[in-house]
Write a structure and sequence with these properties.
This protein has 137 residues and is of the alpha/beta class. Helices cover 39% and strands 20% of the residues. It has 4 helices and 6 strands; from the N terminus they run βββαβαβαβα. Strand 2 and strand 3 form a beta hairpin.
Length: 137
């Protein structure tokens, strides 16, 4: 699935979906539409991990975006559409984005969600696919 600003690859063997953002979503509604397309894809299974590659992001998302993101994950879990891990990969060049990701980890944990932020795509894949329990960023 490829659309302006985002591509999605679903790897059934590794049990992950990777959303690669080439530009920031204009708003949460746009982000949620892509998330729902992944959930509806017949190749995707609820226990797959999802990786959101935001390395092109230069500014951290707004607090309201983070709250809506966590609520969307929680709702998908309640509907049994998503039971996997979510990893976000960010650029090493933008420490503020990583900082927001770390805060999101803590907020996700309070909601019982499995979310991690990484600076390295391969480590994110290991964690999200449950083929490794790599926690280093």
């Amino acid at each position: 699935m490829t659309e302006p600003g985002v591509t999605c690859e679903i790897d059934s063997e590794q049990r992950i979906a990777i959303l690669t953002w080439t530009q920031e979503p204009k708003d949460f509604v746009g982000w949620k539409q892509h998330f729902e397309k992944v959930l509806a894809d017949p190749r995707f299974r609820p226990d797959f991990g999802i990786i959101s590659d935001w390395r092109s992001l230069r500014e951290p998302p707004a607090n309201s975006f983070v709250e809506e993101f966590l609520e969307a994950l929680h709702e998908a879990r309640e509907r049994k559409q998503f039971a996997g891990r979510w990893a976000t990969v960010v650029s090493t060049a933008h420490p503020a984005v990583f900082g927001v990701g770390r805060m999101t980890e803590m907020r996700a944990e309070l909601k019982g969600l499995e979310y991690r932020v990484y600076r390295d795509l391969q480590r994110a894949v290991l964690w999200a696919s449950r083929t490794g329990n790599d926690r280093s960023t």
